[in-house]
DNA sequence: GAATTTTTCCGTATTTTATCCGGTGGAAAC
DNA sequence: GTTTCCACCGGATAAAATACGGAAAAATTC
């Protein structure tokens, strides 16, 4: 697997924001031929710098008006609470992100739901019913100041 | 702006995961002609359901090995601390997300950086130097259990 | 420092894909 | 029953992606 150069970074920077740009236009912007550009793009994918492509959707227009972060504390008595919890979380479609953190709690979860009623049900039926969950703290988002900032390449 | 139907949702679901899929293949998967599929895609963009497209990059291969969440508390004495803070945050390229939350603190920030040294500098030079920041709590991510879950359409 | 290997790049030809356009069928409105 | 509207289709055209041979540049070796 080869190293990455300046042009590759520019390609990544553009694709991060305009993922469906035509290869031709991408080529023009970075100042290379379409063939060379396509070669680079393929390499960046093959080498794992680009994991995939995706559409950015507007959650609010799609029935996900509520963004919530949840801090989760686990009951660390059983040896594989962490594994169990991680696996359960990956199967829950409501969970957009879940990170194990160092600090005052164990996991930070990001979820998008329709409204508070839905959230209430999610908390009870999904989260609190998971084995090993000792405590949760809910933070409802009032305003999304910045949403999907690109990596500053 | 028209309503969305079952087929539209399937299109969105596919595009969320495979944003660069060819219109032809998309058409085949949903069982419509390429023309009809293209029409729907255009409409979904025009009506704002699809905000854009982007490449999913691997942060770790690009020099962003450290994911950090930061809880921020503001000094609510000046009337426009919130606006000032929000604007400053939007200009900071290190900040991937920033949300104003209801609960024990005011803002939750998500940032990706090279390492702890870089983070230390970011905290001092950027965050703590913003006007109105009273207190911050740092949570370094040890394991990314789930990263970019799609909306469960 | 010259020769060789490797990598990156380009241009052309071919294939694939997207878009345009006229027309069809079905549902709702009149 | 006719008209209107909408989503869809298929064929024609335009545009883009890909494959391929070879040239230039860079790195490696001797």
Summarize the structure.
Two copies of one chain form a homodimer. The first copy, chain A, contains five helices and five strands.
Report on this model:
Two copies of one chain form a homodimer. With 153 residues, chain A is of the alpha+beta class. Chain A folds into two domains: 6-46, Arc Repressor Mutant, subunit A (Orthogonal Bundle); 59-140, Alpha-Beta Plaits (2-Layer Sandwich), CATH 3.30.70.920. Chain A is 37% helix and 30% strand. The model of chain A has no long low-confidence stretch (mean pLDDT 95). The first copy, chain A, contains five helices and five strands, in the order H-H-H-E-E-H-E-E-H-E.
Helix fraction of chain A, binned, reads 25-40%
Structural class of chain A: alpha+beta
Largest interface: A-B, 62 and 62 residues
Write the element-wise H/E pattern of chain A from the N-terminal end onward: HHHEEHEEHE
CATH topology of the largest domain in chain A: Alpha-Beta Plaits
Assigned CATH superfamily of the largest domain in chain A: Lrp/AsnC effector binding domain/regulation of amino acid metabolism (RAM) domain
- Adjacency order of strands in the biggest sheet of chain A: 3-4-2-5
How many helices of chain A? The count is 5
Q: Note the gap between the termini of chain A.
A: 20 Å
User: How would you describe the shape of chain A?
Assistant: elongated
CATH architecture of the largest domain in chain A: 2-Layer Sandwich
Q: Whole-number radius of gyration of chain A?
A: 20 Å
- Which sheet architecture does the biggest sheet of chain A show? 4 strands, antiparallel
Q: Please identify the oligomeric state.
A: homodimer
CATH level 1 class label of the largest domain in chain A? Alpha Beta
């Amino acid at each position: 697997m080869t190293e990455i150069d300046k042009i590759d970074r520019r390609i990544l920077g553009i694709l991060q924001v305009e993922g469906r740009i035509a290869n031709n236009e991408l080529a023009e912007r970075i100042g290379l031929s379409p063939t060379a550009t396509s070669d680079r793009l393929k390499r960046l994918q093959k080498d794992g710098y680009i994991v995939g492509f995706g559409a950015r959707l507007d959650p609010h227009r799609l029935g996900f008006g509520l963004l919530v972060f949840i801090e989760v504390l686990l009951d660390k008595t059983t040896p594989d609470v962490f594994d169990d919890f991680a696996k359960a979380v990956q199967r829950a479609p409501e969970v957009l992100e879940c990170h194990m953190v160092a600090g005052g709690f164990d996991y930070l979860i990001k979820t998008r739901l329709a409204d508070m009623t839905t959230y209430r049900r999610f908390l009870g039926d999904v989260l609190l019913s998971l084995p090993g969950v000792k405590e949760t703290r809910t933070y409802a988002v009032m305003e999304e100041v910045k949403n999907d900032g690109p990596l500053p390449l």
